[in-house]
Automatic annotation (TrEMBL):
GO terms for molecular function: aspartic-type endopeptidase activity. InterPro entries: Aspartic_peptidase_A1 (IPR001461), Aspartic_peptidase_AS (IPR001969), Pepsin-like_dom (IPR034164), PEPTIDASE_A1 (IPR033121), Peptidase_aspartic_dom_sf (IPR021109). GO terms for biological process: proteolysis. This is Peptidase A1 domain-containing protein. The active site is at D168, D343. It comes from Bifiguratus adelaidae. Belongs to the peptidase A1 family.
Length: 463
């Protein structure tokens, strides 16, 4: 919790009463009749004006019996509904109180073709979008990699519809409708229009708040975009888990809109704005080999301890999940400290041109292969390859040659020549404030934590 009020008000004294008939002090909004709460009797004259918490001590949501029907209401942001009856209590929980358990659910790696040359091209197209910063979001933003994505099944509305959404730390709007049509239901509320661009793709349409279910996590008021027009995406939309500021200027009548992490926290479903991500390498076209955890880190998915580093202040990396690091090849320094980002939507690993040149200068015969888009390393140099280390907060996160070289069993999938070796590490361009991208091929070896509350990123060796 970061709210000053939240931290300074004593738990025993911090509450507000909302009594029946005192609408001036209540946040109740009689917008629609809702199903009878499971913990409430029939809404009749005997129970007129009675309140019922939907999830006592967990959620802000409550129902009130008005003229024979239950109406929806919510306690103020930062509080939870804790008492039912003729009056309702909205408590500010004590600092660092756990509001709910970690919410963990699987994600699936989806390979469109697979076509690795197109994947490299998509990565290359994505990079310029990161450099645009927030000012140009309306015309240029990260491209969505259609070839290799991690997707989550997300249900929306009541009755629920299920959508397959790309998990993307490089964008923050959650939206649907690229393929499966969204049908408004009783829980849908129109809030405005929305538009965003992803480099080679874009979407525009309407913004709603609705009930969103991700695994066991149920968000009753999540802002979602619904595409009426979209291009460049093969699944249903995007689950945006980047920083909230990336939503600036995308929705009418709103400066920003809350991400799913923001909503999970404000509705009391998680105790902190933290996302844990677990990836595991696979060659299958469709494989459930990843996991998202809302509210913290899944300790079963990594070994040792998490190393945290503060977010960088260097733009444009600072607009994303940006950090600082240095690079070593064996015992040779390849780059001093540079800013860059950790990004689930990028397939490979990219370093700026000076570091790229310095790295491959150390490997005799290494050269860019135009047929594949990868750096090709002759077999005579393979046995002498050294580990590559990304030094973050004083700790080396190392990739061995087997971790940054395409396995021989997969070379033909990449369009390569059997017996030759190809590197996952590419060139991101000139040094300009976003000088590396740690994409999926890095994250498949290291568990990652994106901590909005403390403005930091954590990494640990994947279990």
């Amino acid at each position: 919790p970061t709210s000053e009020k939240y931290l300074t008000v004593p738990y025993s004294a911090s509450y507000e009463f909302f009594k029946a008939g005192t609408s001036t002090s209540s946040t109740s909004s009689s917008i629609a009749a809702t199903p009878t709460p499971t913990n409430a009797p029939v809404c009749d004259s005997a129970n007129q004006g009675s309140y019922y918490c939907i999830e006592s001590g967990v959620s802000r949501a409550y129902e009130v019996c008005v003229n024979g029907a239950f109406m929806s209401g919510t306690c103020p942001t930062g509080t939870v509904c804790t008492t039912s009856g003729n009056s309702i209590v909205c408590n500010y929980p004590p600092a660092y109180e756990k509001k709910g358990d970690l919410v963990t659910f699987p994600i699936t790696r989806f390979n469109k073709n697979p076509n690795w040359k197109d994947a490299v091209a998509a990565d290359k197209n994505r990079i310029p979008g990161f450099h645009s910063g927030l000012q140009k979001r309306a015309i240029s933003a990260p491209v969505i990699n259609e070839q290799f994505n991690y997707i989550a099944n997300v249900s929306i509305g009541s009755p629920a519809q299920t959508f397959q959404l790309i998990v993307d730390t490089g964008s923050s709007n959650t939206w649907v409708g690229a393929n499966t049509a969204y049908i408004p239901t009783s829980t849908s509320k129109y809030t405005g229009t929305v538009s965003n661009s992803y480099g080679s793709g874009s979407f525009s349409g309407n913004e709603y708040t609705d009930t969103v279910t991700i695994g066991d996590l149920v968000l009753t008021g999540q802002s979602i975009g619904v595409a009426t027009n979209s291009t460049g995406i093969v699944v249903d939309g995007i689950l945006g888990v980047g920083p909230t500021d990336l939503t600036q200027g995308t929705v009418s009548n709103a400066y920003t809109v809350p991400t799913v992490i923001d909503t999970a926290y404000s509705e009391g479903k998680i105790s902190s704005k933290v996302l844990g991500i677990y990836f595991q390498s696979t060659t299958a076209r469709l494989s459930q080999n990843g996991e998202l955890t809302f509210g913290g880190a899944d300790t079963s998915k990594y070994t040792g301890t998490l190393t945290y580093t503060s977010l960088t202040t260097t733009s444009p990396a600072s607009h994303y999940w940006g950090i600082n690091l240095s690079i070593m090849y064996g015992s040779t320094s390849i780059s001093s400290t540079i800013p860059g980002i950790v990004d689930t939507g990028t397939t490979l690993i990219y370093i700026n041109t000076p570091a790229y040149i310095a790295l491959y200068k150390e490997i005799p015969g290494a050269a860019l292969d135009n047929n594949t888009g990868f750096v090709k390393i002759p077999s005579s140099s393979y046995s002498n390859l050294q580990p590559i280390s990304f030094v973050i907060a004083g700790r080396s996160f190392t990739l061995t040659p087997t971790q940054y070289i395409i396995p021989q069993s997969e070379v033909t999938l990449y369009g390569g020549t059997p017996g030759s070796y190809y590197s996952y590490i590419g060139n991101s361009g000139a040094a300009n404030g976003l000088d590396f991208i740690l994409g999926q091929k890095f994250l498949e070896n290291y568990y990652s934590v994106f901590d909005t509350t403390n403005k930091r990123v954590g990494l640990a060796t994947r279990a």
